[in-house]
Here is the input.
Amino acid sequence: MTDKYKEAGVDISAGNQFVELIKPFIRKTHRPGVITDIGGFGGLFAIDPREYKEPTLVSSTDGVGTKLKLAIDLKKIDTIGTDLVAMCVNDIACCGARPLFFLDYFATGHLIPEEHKNIVKGIAEACEKVKCALIGGETAEMPDMYSNEDFDLAGFAVGIVDRQKIIDGMEVRLNQSIIGIASSGFHSNGYALIRKIIKDNNLDLNQPREGSDQPLGLELLSPTKLYSPIIEWLIREFKITSIAHITGGGLIENIPRVLPAGAKAKIHKGSWPFPPLMRSFQKMGEIDDNSMFRFFNCGLGLVIVTPKDQAKAACDLINNSGEHAYIIGSIASRTKEGPAVTFE
Here is the structure.
């Protein structure tokens, strides 16, 4: 019997094979609260109300942007799942939330089960690291929407926080310290510009840049940091009044999202190491400093605000955990028309 759907470009059997291949990865992420196995019409998760006075759900959805194109071109797709989870889970952690569960959307022009299973494997491994259950998703084979080996990813995370413990920036006060936690690279933002600079300068992604022993392509694919565990730890030990995930918009546009009216972040240039990789792209792209602070994370993937007398101890805890933290500035007063972030 002729498979008319397969002739149209959609292989149902390949889809079923893909589900079987990813089931072991998904089951490894299951945690207390997960009710359903993969394959149902909806993923079910039960919240234990005894753990919270006013349980409040926090959600976020995101993608990986054109970093995907770089991964596809380099045929290295096993770490892109970490980027997807990090972009969503880091966001909800900024409210003080613990991740509960995650769902993914994977769309491609041609499903290759043995190859594409590595994407979900990467998603599942990242979910395990942040104790977040992967309870469902969607795989779509769409031959007329995606050409060749192209695909797209989107993720959706849900976390929980007690309403009384939500971190929303309303307790930010003058002279509190600003701490920056190092990124692992460009993370998942700015890749349209990065790829343009690569093209304009005819860069070989298989060769290391000057000063590095790693091929440039692999350096650019370094996965986004998963900050949720360190945020949970910091919240338990210190008074954290504000948290910003430094994504698209850089330091200039993300820090103001978690500051109250009348407050500004006074950032001290040179108070943290500026990554050589980013400095290299800044030079090749002829990008001024202000634009760099607006386009990229510039070496800081997360920014937190804490009382001045707790800042050093907080930095010590972060550094002892294996991450790198720096006191990069303080909170100052802001005039009505003044900028929310200044660099000095």
Notes: Residues 113-129 form the longest helix (17 residues). The mean pLDDT is 95.
